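Hello again, I could really use a second opinion on something today. Take your time with it, there's no hurry, and the full record follows here:

___
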Amino acid sequence: MTGPAPHADTADLVVIGAGVVGAAAAYFAARAGLRVTVVDRGPLAGGTSSAGEGNLLVSDKEAGPELDLALFSQRVWREDLAEHAGLWEFEAKGGLVVAATPGGADALAKLVLEQRAQGIEAVDVPKDELPDY
C-alpha cells in the first residue's frame, strides 16, 4: 500500500508574512529548490515590520554578530540580488554618529577603529565641520 498522492497545494516551506524578511526567505528557499508558499494579509513586500526598518546600517554597530549580519546583508543586496535591482529601491548610504560628551567621543573613536578593522570606511568629522554635513 502506498501513501496519499502529493497534492498540488503542498509545500516544503510555508512562510507567514510577505514583508522584506519573509519575501527574502521565500525567494532564497525557492532558489534552493524548495516548493514555497507565502501567506500574508496584504501584497508582497507591501508593508514594514520591526524586522524591516528599511536600512542596512553599519555606522552604529560594534564588531560582532550584528555588524557581521549587516555587512552580509549589504553584500546580498549588492551582489546576490543585483539581477532583480529594478524591482526595488536600494541606495547605499553612509551614516553620521555624533558624540555629545567627551566620554561619548572616546567611545566613538574606539568604534571608528573597530569598524575600520572590519573594512568599513569610517571618517572622523571634527566638530567645526559638522555644519557642512
